[in-house]
Each structure stands twice: as C-alpha cells, then as structure tokens.
Amino acid sequence: MKELSKLLGYREEIRVVDATMRDGGLVNDFHFSDEFVKALYMTNLKAGVDYMELGYKGSKEMFDVNKFGKWKFTNDEDILKVIGENKDTGMKLAAMADVGRCDYKTDIISRSESPLDLIRVACYIHQIPAAIDMIEDAKRKGYEVSCNIMAISNAQEGDIKVALDMLGQSPVDVIYIVDSFGSLFPEQIARIAHLYGEFAEKYGKQLGMHAHNNQQLAFANTIEAVGDGVNWLDATYNGMGRGAGNCYMEHLLGFLRNPKYNLFPVIRFIENQMAELKKSGAVWGYETQYFFTGLLNQHPRSAIAFTKEGRKDYAQFYTELLGMD
Fold it and tell me: What rounded mean pLDDT belongs to the chain?
C-alpha cells in the first residue's frame, strides 16, 4: 500500500507542468492567437503552475513555417513579444526538442540570452545516444533539461533499463515516464515507476509523468505516479492534446493538496478560452476510437484519421485495427 503522505500530504517537490500549447498545438497546428497565449500565461501565474511549455523547437528546414503557427518553432523573439521576459514570476518557461526534428545546436541559444528555462528532449528508445548529445548541449548552454522516452509501452524492459542507465549517467535533471499511446493501466504505471525510481535514486534524478487519455486513464495514471513518488506532473487545460488528449489540469490541481496551487483561475480560463477554442473547430478528447488504439497499444494516428473523416462505424474500425478487414 502506498504511503498516504504521498497521496494526501503536501509535497514541496511537486512540479506541475502546463503542456497545453505544446501537446495541444498538435490539435490546431500551433495556431494559437497571441491573446490566447498571454491569457494562458497569466492564468498559469495565478494558478501557481511551475512550468509552462510553450511549444516545440521545430526545424524550419523540415517543417513549413507557412503551414504551422509560430509555437511549432518557439522563437525567443516571439516569446518576448507575446509574454515578455518572465522575470521574477516564480514560473519557468519550457520548450520541447524532438530528436531528429530540430536544429538544436543553432536554434537553442544560451540560456542567459533566452527567456526559456527548461529544454524538454523527446526521443524514442533507439534514439537515446542522440538524445544524450542534445541533453549535454542544452546543459552546456545553462538550461534545466528533462528527457521524455516515448512509446515505452512498445519497448522491452531490458532496453528500458539500458536507456535509464545511460540517461542516469548524463546531466539530465528529470526523466519522464511517457504513456504515448494511452495504453497503460495504473498497475503498470506502479511497476514502471518502481523501475524508473531505482535508476533515479541511483543517479540523483527526478521523475516525471506524461499521460494520454485514450482509455480515460490519464488522470488516474498521473495520480498513481504521484503515489509512487513521481514529482514532475504534466497536464493540459481541459485535457487538450493530440487525439484523446492528456491529464486535465483542472483535475490535477483539484487533487493536489498543495496550498501554492489555485484552481479558480483555471476554471475561469476554461470558461473564457477553451470553450471558444472548441467552437473554432479544434477537436480533441476521448472518444471510442481512441479507446481501441489504447487498448491495442497502437499509435492513435488511425483513430485521429477516423475522427477527421467523421466516421462512426466503430465495429468496422475495430476489425481494421485487428487486421481482420
């Protein structure tokens, strides 16, 4: 049984990370208005959120700057224009850099010259050596650095152990458990957190949790991780994120017994901004098709296509996923 203090008590080490613009940007190709971004920033400040992830550091060579909104690239000048320098606020700013999809040596400048504080490196397990090079580069530039190992539900435990040992020996600050396909159950999260925790304790690293809601378990899995001693917790407003979305920020802050967090500004923002975003055509959130891909431990791209096509033939889609069509 978990220690009640880890579930019901105040834990100063907890860090809440708002990933609305980054994971949510996958829904609308990062076309957030400046007014939305500024309002989200101010809401995070009022709510006591610890980190705000603004978007990706995407390569302008690989991705069309005319197709995507500016937060696909998270230029420092755009941050300064919309948000400002973010000095002495108590909240830090972050951006994600995908292995193989960013020009990190040129596009990520010295932290002393940037409003960003944290670089979140994302990779698949076979990309760990490249991820470590990115981690070392960001550290040399003065950033806090985390690493998201994606799609671990498809990885062998032996490979995960090797990856964790390699990351443990790197200068990374936080190692994330990432349920990319929303396929994991709380019992599995508990075992994974124990495994990650062995390496985190050995090398003095923090652990984070990033959950997807394909089986409506993002919040449950995040709570499970909290009880297992994971301190860095990702969430998004109204659960906005790719496909079925993520752990709901409002649920997470409502759960945490931490006096630094304030739920009311989050509720107000959802009322004033997230409802309008949905009215504008942005589509995310749990539906039956996402349950199928989560249950079968598959990437949600097929369910996303099912949604965009307006299909409702769930039985047919399920047989397609099973390879029976």
Answer: 96
